[in-house]
């Protein structure tokens, strides 16, 4: 397996007056919060994993989280920027809790969260200008991409996953006809390659998401949060079924559910705060994923399916955010000056 050298931020500010931009602050803050959360989950997984290959991968991901957090802290301290509270093993983990997931789940989880990390870093790279921040996010991209390659290799080697469906190579270059957008009426064309790719990607993401939120609903002691998690579990299950149907209707295979990888434990290893944050964070990533799917889609039925799912997810994220605010768990991101209150 590839072992990358630790990040060494060589540059300092190119000018004494160069401050962090809003994009740099925002993306560093979001990266800190996400990796602070991930480090806690990975710490718990490492207490129970038995498969040595999976354990090696979890350790690598854990070390990357630690490295990313340390680098961001160094940048923030240089700017007298307050270090976010984030999450901690002491406050957000119960390491005495029994095993909640089977070993295989950890690999699917790593791919699910690594793709979310790539999404953040991918947006950050074109937006940041300061050399140390640019170097950091470039490194995050490269290190996470290397990790994803190792995750995919392990998934395939152990037979945990199948590749996206195979479709025929076109016989010739062609142009679409007027029925290209049909989805409900008239002649409905077969799915094109990009539609198949995003259906597969959404299934892969959502089966991991469903297993995770099902586990959360199983162990939470807060009834209001439990009801929200069950709601999220139910519509996520329906979304996956819709995506699978689209592939199966054209005799294409789809990834399977992962529910069987959740044990029957009802003792929570995680605080209510970190579980709720996880679903707000990852469901927010689903909104971006749906946007990417809609952008390359051509059929009306698929577009409507994604739009309806997007509305359900946006409603869930809002309700979850309200619960976090109600409990005093939501940290405030950096924000612009409210100048009308300045005297």
UniProtKB/TrEMBL annotation:
Q: Under which name does UniProt file this protein?
A: DUF3231 family protein
What is this organism's lineage? Bacteria, Bacillati, Bacillota, Bacilli, Bacillales
Q: Which organism is it from?
A: Niallia hominis
Matching entries from InterPro entries are given as: DUF3231 (IPR021617), Ferritin-like (IPR012347)
Pfam families per UniProt: DUF3231 (PF11553)
Gene3D superfamilies attached here?
1.20.1260.10
In terms of domain of life, where is this protein from?
Bacteria
């Amino acid at each position: 397996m590839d072992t990358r050298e630790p990040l060494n931020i060589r540059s300092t500010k190119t000018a004494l007056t160069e401050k962090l931009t809003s994009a740099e602050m925002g993306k560093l803050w979001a990266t800190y919060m996400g990796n602070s959360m991930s480090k806690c989950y990975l710490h718990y997984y490492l207490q129970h994993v038995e498969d040595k290959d999976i354990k090696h991968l979890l350790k690598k991901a854990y070390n990357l989280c630690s490295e990313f957090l340390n680098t961001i802290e160094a940048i923030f301290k240089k700017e007298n920027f307050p270090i976010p509270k984030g999450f901690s093993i002491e406050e957000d983990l119960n390491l005495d809790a029994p095993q909640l997931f089977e070993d295989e789940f950890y690999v699917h989880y790593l791919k699910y969260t690594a793709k979310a990390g790539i999404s953040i870093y991918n947006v950050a790279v074109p937006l940041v200008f300061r050399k140390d921040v640019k170097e950091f996010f470039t490194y995050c991209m490269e290190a996470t991409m290397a990790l994803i390659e190792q995750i995919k290799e392990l998934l395939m080697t152990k037979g945990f996953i199948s590749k996206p469906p195979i479709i025929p190579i076109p016989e010739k270059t062609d142009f679409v006809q007027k029925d290209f957008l049909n989805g409900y009426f008239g002649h409905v064309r077969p799915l094109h390659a990009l539609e198949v790719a995003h259906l597969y990607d959404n299934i892969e993401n959502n089966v991991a998401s469903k297993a995770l939120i099902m586990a959360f609903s199983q162990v939470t002691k807060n009834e209001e949060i439990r009801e929200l998690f069950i709601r999220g579990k139910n519509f996520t299950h329906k979304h996956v079924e819709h995506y699978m149907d689209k592939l199966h209707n054209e005799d294409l295979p789809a990834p399977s559910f992962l529910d069987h990888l959740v044990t029957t434990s009802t003792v929570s290893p995680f605080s209510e705060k970190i579980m709720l944050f996880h679903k707000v964070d990852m469901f927010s990533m689903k909104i971006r994923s749906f946007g990417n799917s809609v952008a390359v889609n051509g059929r009306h039925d698929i577009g409507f399916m994604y739009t309806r799912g997007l509305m359900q997810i946006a409603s869930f994220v809002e309700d979850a955010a309200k619960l976090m605010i109600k409990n005093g768990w939501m940290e405030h991101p950096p924000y612009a000056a409210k100048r009308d209150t300045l005297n």
